[in-house]
C-alpha cells in the first residue's frame, strides 16, 4: 500500500503541496525556537571589553541557593582578592575593573553621557594609546578616540566632566582605541581617582586575570575558585566572561528560555491545527478513492498504511528542508529581541543538533498524528457504505471527538478562572495557553458549530443572493467535512489575532492606569551626569512655588524566606534535607517621607508612612500577610545588590493587584544601586503656581549641579510608555510569527479546497451554468466560510479576553480600538474571498468539454 501511495501522489499535487507548505513553515519556526531555547540555556556572551583576560572574577548575581532569582544591581568583589589570585600558579597578573557614570558638561557636547573606568582596566580589552600619554595624576583622563573625533576633542584640551554627579575640570592626556564594537563613550581616569568616583573604594565590578601563554585554564580556574571561597563571587572563562561586562545576561538569558518556550509551544500548537486541517481536507477530497479501495477489498489497516506512508514521505522532505531556514529564523528572532531591548545584545546565538532534532521530531509526529486521525475517517466506514459516504462527506461526530472537545474546553475554562483571579501583569501567562485550548475545543466541535452558523445564514443569504446563495448553502450542508476544513484556519487566524492584539492593548492599558493613578507630581528633576545627590531633595522642596518634593529610586529586592524547620531529635527525619523555601520578589521604591503623600498616591492602610526613616519598610498588605509579618516586626530582606538587611515594618499599603510596591527610605536604598545616586526627584507645584516658571526656577539649580534637567508630567508619561514598548513590541512579534503562519494556512487551505473541485465545476458548466454563475456561487461560499470562521474566532477571543480584562482592568470589556476587530475581520474576509475566487478562476479557465477527462 505504501508503494501505491507513492505512485498516486502525483495525482494529488494540490494536497501534497498544501501539506508540504504547512509542515515546512511549522517545522522551520519550531526549529528556530529550539535554537533560541538552547541559546537561553547557554547564556553565551563573548566578552568585548574584558576579552584580553583569560579568566574573570565577578559578583554572583543569583540569589543564594537559587538559579531563577537574580539581583538587578551589580554585586561587587573585594579587590583584596587580587593579591591572592596573583599567587595562583599560571597567573601572570590581574586588573580590577570599575564602572561609574560620567558626563561631558561642555555646551558643545551638550551633556554627553560617558562611562568611566580606571586606567589599569584598559589592558583588559585591550585599549591602546593612539595619541598622548596615559593619565598618571588626578585631573587627567584618556578619552575614547572615536568619541573624541565625533565631538572635536583633542589631546591637551580641558574638559568639564561630572563624575558620579560631581563636576570638575580634567585635561585630556591621551586618545585611546579598542577592538571592534566597544562603546565609544568611555573615559579612563587614574585608578585612584576612579576608585573615589565609584564611591566604593576597595570594591571592583570585576577582576580580570591574565595567564601565561599555553597555561591550561581548567586547573587555574579551579584554583582561583578555591581562593575566592564561598563568597558571592563567580569565576568565569570562555563566553561566560561576558556576564561580568553585562550582568543582565544572567537574568535576561533565562527570559530567553521562557520566550522560546512560548513562541515554540504556540507555534507547535498552531502547526498541529494547520497540518491536521490540511491533511484532513486533502483526505476528504479523496474519499471517493478511499471508498473504491474499500469496496474492492482493501482493509482499514492497508488504507491507514497508505495514508501514513504518503504523509510521512512528504513530512520527511518538508522537515529536512526546514532545518536550513530554522537556525536563520532563530538568529533573526534573537536579533529582533536584542533590538527591542528584550535581551542584551551581547548574547550569542548557540544552537546545536538537539533543537533541530526536536523540531524535526515535532513536525513528523504532528504530521503522522494528523494523518492517523484523517485515516480513521476514511477507514472506519463499511465497504457497502463507502461510496455513499464519500458522496456526502457529512459524518463528523464521534464519541472520541466529543470527549476530547470537552477536555479541551474544560481546560480552557479552568485557565480562564485562573486568569481572572491572578495579578494583572501575570494574566497573559495563562491567557495565551487558554486561547489554544479554546481553539482546540471549538476545532473539534467545528463541524457542528459551522452547520449551526450556516443554517442561521441560509435564509438571509438565499434572499439576498438568490440561486448562488441557495447552491452555496446546499454545498456547505452536503459537504460538512470540506466546509469545516476551510473554516478552521479562518477561526485560527482571526481568533489568535484578536486575542493576542487585544491582550496586549489591555495589559498596556492596565499598566498605564496603574502609573497614572499613582502619579501626583507635576515636575521631575533628573540629571544627565548619572544622578543627583540625596540632599538635593531638601533644596528643591525649599524653592518658591514648590509644595512638596520627594526622592524616587526603584529597584527589585526580595523578602527572605523563613529558615526551614529542623527535624526534631529522635523523629527519624534527621537525615532528610529540608526543602529550601523560595524568596519573595518585591518591587522596591526608595522615597523620602516628606512630600510623599502629595507627589504620589501611596497611602498607608495601617501604620504611618511618616515613619519611613532609618531602617524601615512599608510593605504591600498582600506581601505582609503572605510572609506573616505585622507592624513592628523585623523583616529580613535582600536589597537590589544582594545586601541582607532587617527592616522594621512601619506601614502596610493597599494597591492595584499586581502593581504593588514596597517603600523604603531612599537613604537606605540608594547606596545599594549601581550608580549610588538618586535618579529623580518628584515635585508637586503649589496651587496656582505657574509650572513653566517653576521649571525655570528649578533649572537654575544647574549652576551648582551641572547636568540637572527638569521635565513636566507629560514627559513622565512618555518615559512610562517607552518602558512599556518592550513588552508591546515582543507581543506583536509573537503575533506576527504565529498569526502570519496561520494566515499562510488560511490561504493554503482555501486554495486546496477550491482547486480540488474541478469535476463539480465541470458538471455545473455542462448543465448550463456560466463562469459568472459558478464564481457567484463560490463568492457566497467563501463568504460563508469567512463568517463562520470569524464568528468562531470572536468566541475564542472573547473567552480569552473577558477573564484577562477582569484581572487587569476590573471590567469584562477589554481595552482597545474597535478598529482592531474591523481590521482583523476584514483581513480574514478579504483573504478568504481573494484566494477562493482566484483559485476558482484558474480552475474555470478551460472549456467544459476539455474538463471531461479530469481525474477526481
Automatic annotation (TrEMBL):
<feature type="transmembrane region" description="Helical">
    <location>
        <begin position="819"/>
        <end position="844"/>
    </location>
</feature>
<protein>
    <submittedName>
        <fullName>FtsX-like permease family protein</fullName>
    </submittedName>
</protein>
<feature type="domain" description="ABC3 transporter permease C-terminal">
    <location>
        <begin position="734"/>
        <end position="847"/>
    </location>
</feature>
<feature type="transmembrane region" description="Helical">
    <location>
        <begin position="16"/>
        <end position="37"/>
    </location>
</feature>
<feature type="transmembrane region" description="Helical">
    <location>
        <begin position="483"/>
        <end position="503"/>
    </location>
</feature>
<feature type="transmembrane region" description="Helical">
    <location>
        <begin position="353"/>
        <end position="373"/>
    </location>
</feature>
<feature type="transmembrane region" description="Helical">
    <location>
        <begin position="729"/>
        <end position="753"/>
    </location>
</feature>
<feature type="transmembrane region" description="Helical">
    <location>
        <begin position="312"/>
        <end position="333"/>
    </location>
</feature>
<dbReference type="InterPro" id="IPR038766">
    <property type="entry name" value="Membrane_comp_ABC_pdt"/>
</dbReference>
<keyword id="KW-0472">Membrane</keyword>
<keyword id="KW-0812">Transmembrane</keyword>
<feature type="compositionally biased region" description="Acidic residues">
    <location>
        <begin position="572"/>
        <end position="583"/>
    </location>
</feature>
<feature type="transmembrane region" description="Helical">
    <location>
        <begin position="402"/>
        <end position="424"/>
    </location>
</feature>
<feature type="domain" description="ABC3 transporter permease C-terminal">
    <location>
        <begin position="262"/>
        <end position="381"/>
    </location>
</feature>
<keyword id="KW-1133">Transmembrane helix</keyword>
<feature type="transmembrane region" description="Helical">
    <location>
        <begin position="774"/>
        <end position="799"/>
    </location>
</feature>
<feature type="transmembrane region" description="Helical">
    <location>
        <begin position="444"/>
        <end position="471"/>
    </location>
</feature>
<dbReference type="Pfam" id="PF02687">
    <property type="entry name" value="FtsX"/>
</dbReference>
<keyword id="KW-1003">Cell membrane</keyword>
<feature type="region of interest" description="Disordered">
    <location>
        <begin position="557"/>
        <end position="594"/>
    </location>
</feature>
<dbReference type="InterPro" id="IPR003838">
    <property type="entry name" value="ABC3_permease_C"/>
</dbReference>
Amino acid at each position: 500500500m505504501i508503494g501505491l501511495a507513492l505512485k498516486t501522489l502525483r495525482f494529488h499535487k494540490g494536497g501534497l503541496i498544501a501539506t508540504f507548505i504547512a509542515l515546512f513553515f511549522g517545522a522551520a519556526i519550531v526549529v528556530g525556537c529550539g535554537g533560541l531555547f538552547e541559546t537561553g540555556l547557554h547564556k553565551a556572551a563573548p566578552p568585548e571589553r574584558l576579552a584580553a583576560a583569560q579568566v574573570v572574577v565577578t559578583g554572583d548575581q543569583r540569589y543564594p541557593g537559587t538559579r531563577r532569582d537574580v539581583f538587578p544591581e551589580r554585586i561587587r568583589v573585594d579587590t583584596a582578592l587580587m593579591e591572592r589570585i596573583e599567587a595562583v600558579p599560571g597567573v601572570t597578573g590581574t586588573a580590577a575593573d570599575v564602572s561609574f557614570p560620567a558626563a561631558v558638561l561642555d555646551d558643545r557636547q551638550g551633556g554627553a553621557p560617558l562611562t568611566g573606568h580606571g586606567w589599569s582596566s584598559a589592558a583588559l580589552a585591550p585599549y591602546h594609546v593612539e595619541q598622548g600619554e596615559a593619565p598618571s595624576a588626578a585631573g587627567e583622563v584618556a578619552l575614547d578616540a572615536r568619541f573624541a573625533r565625533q565631538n572635536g576633542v583633542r589631546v591637551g584640551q580641558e574638559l568639564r566632566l561630572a563624575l558620579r554627579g560631581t563636576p570638575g575640570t580634567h585635561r585630556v592626556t591621551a586618545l585611546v582605541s579598542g577592538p571592534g564594537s566597544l562603546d565609544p563613550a568611555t573615559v579612563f581616569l587614574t585608578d585612584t581617582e576612579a576608585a573615589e568616583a565609584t564611591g566604593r573604594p576597595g570594591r571592583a565590578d570585576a577582576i580580570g586575570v591574565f595567564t601565561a601563554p599555553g597555561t591550561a585554564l581548567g586547573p587555574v580556574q579551579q584554583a582561583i575558585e578555591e581562593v575566592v571561597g564561598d563568597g558571592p563571587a563567580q569565576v568565569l572563562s570562555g563566553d561566560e566572561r561576558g556576564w561580568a561586562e553585562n550582568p543582565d545576561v544572567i537574568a535576561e538569558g533565562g527570559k530567553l528560555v521562557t520566550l522560546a518556550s512560548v513562541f515554540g509551544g504556540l507555534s507547535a500548537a498552531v502547526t498541529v491545527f494547520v497540518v491536521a486541517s490540511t491533511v484532513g481536507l486533502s483526505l476528504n477530497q479523496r474519499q471517493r478513492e478511499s471508498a473504491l479501495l474499500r469496496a474492492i477489498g482493501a482493509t482499514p489497516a492497508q488504507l491507514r498504511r497508505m495514508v501514513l506512508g504518503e504523509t510521512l514521505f512528504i513530512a520527511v522532505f518538508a522537515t529536512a528542508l526546514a532545518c536550513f531556514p530554522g537556525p536563520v529564523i532563530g538568529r533573526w528572532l534573537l536579533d529582533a529581541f536584542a533590538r527591542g531591548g528584550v535581551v542584551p545584545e551581547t548574547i550569542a546565538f548557540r544552537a546545536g543538533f538537539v533543537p533541530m532534532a526536536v523540531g524535526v521530531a515535532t513536525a513528523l509526529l504532528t504530521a503522522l498524528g494528523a494523518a492517523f486521525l484523517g485515516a480513521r475517517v476514511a477507514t472506519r466506514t463499511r465497504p457497502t457504505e463507502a461510496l455513499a459516504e464519500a458522496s456526502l462527506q457529512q459524518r463528523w461526530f464521534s464519541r472520541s471527538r466529543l470527549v476530547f472537545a470537552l477536555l479541551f474546553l474544560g481546560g480552557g475554562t479552568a485557565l480562564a478562572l485562573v486568569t481572572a483571579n491572578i495579578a494583572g501583569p501575570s494574566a497573559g501567562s495563562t491567557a495565551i495557553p487558554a486561547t489554544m485550548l479554546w481553539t482546540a475545543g471549538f476545532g473539534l466541535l467545528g463541524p457542528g458549530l459551522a452547520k449551526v452558523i450556516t443554517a442561521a445564514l441560509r435564509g438571509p443569504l438565499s434572499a439576498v443572493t438568490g440561486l448562488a446563495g441557495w447552491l452555496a448553502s446546499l454545498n456547505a450542508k452536503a459537504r460538512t467535512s470540506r466546509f469545516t476544513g476551510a473554516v478552521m484556519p479562518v477561526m485560527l487566524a482571526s481568533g489568535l489575532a484578536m486575542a493576542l492584539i487585544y491582550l496586549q492593548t489591555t495589559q498596556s492599558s492596565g499598566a498605564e492606569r496603574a502609573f497614572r493613578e499613582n502619579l501626583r507630581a507635576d515636575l521631575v528633576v533628573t540629571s544627565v551626569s548619572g544622578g543627583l545627590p540625596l540632599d538635593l531633595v531638601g533644596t528643591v522642596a525649599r524653592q518658591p512655588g514648590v509644595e512638596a518634593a520627594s526622592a524616587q529610586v526603584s529597584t527589585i529586592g526580595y523578602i527572605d524566606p523563613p529558615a526551614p524547620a529542623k527535624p526534631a531529635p529522635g523523629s527519624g527525619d534527621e537525615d532528610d534535607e529540608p526543602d529550601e523555601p523560595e524568596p519573595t520578589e518585591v518591587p522596591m521604591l526608595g522615597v523620602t517621607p516628606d512630600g510623599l503623600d502629595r507627589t504620589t498616591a501611596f497611602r498607608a492602610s495601617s501604620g504611618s508612612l511618616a515613619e519611613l526613616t532609618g531602617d524601615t519598610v512599608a510593605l504591600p498588605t498582600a506581601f505582609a500577610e503572605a510572609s506573616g509579618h505585622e507592624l513592628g516586626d523585623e523583616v529580613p530582606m535582600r536589597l537590589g545588590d544582594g545586601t541582607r538587611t532587617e527592616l522594621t515594618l512601619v506601614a502596610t499599603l493597599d494597591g492595584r493587584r499586581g502593581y504593588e510596591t514596597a517603600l523604603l527610605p531612599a537613604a537606605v536604598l540608594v547606596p545599594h544601586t549601581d550608580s549610588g545616586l538618586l535618579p529623580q526627584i518628584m515635585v508637586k507645584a503649589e496651587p496656582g503656581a505657574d509650572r513653566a516658571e517653576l521649571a525655570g526656577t528649578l533649572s537654575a539649580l544647574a549652576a551648582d549641579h551641572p547636568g540637572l534637567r527638569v521635565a513636566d508630567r507629560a514627559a513622565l508619561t512618555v518615559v512610562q510608555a517607552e518602558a512599556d514598548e518592550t513588552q508591546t513590541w515582543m507581543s506583536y512579534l509573537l503575533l506576527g510569527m504565529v498569526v502570519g503562519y496561520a494566515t499562510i494556512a488560511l490561504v493554503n487551505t482555501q486554495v486546496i479546497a477550491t482547486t480540488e473541485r474541478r469535476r463539480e465545476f465541470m458538471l455545473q458548466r455542462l448543465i448550463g451554468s456560466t463562469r459568472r454563475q459558478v464564481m457567484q456561487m463560490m463568492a457566497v461560499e467563501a463568504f460563508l466560510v469567512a463568517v463562520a470562521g470569524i464568528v468562531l474566532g470572536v468566541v475564542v477571543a472573547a473567552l480569552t479576553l473577558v477573564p484577562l480584562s477582569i484581572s487587569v482592568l476590573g471590567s469584562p470589556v477589554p481595552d482597545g480600538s474597535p478598529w482592531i476587530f474591523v481590521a482583523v475581520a476584514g483581513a480574514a474576509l478579504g483573504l478568504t474571498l481573494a484566494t477562493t475566487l482566484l483559485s476558482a478562476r484558474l480552475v474555470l479557465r478551460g472549456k467544459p468539454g476539455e474538463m471531461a477527462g479530469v481525474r477526481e
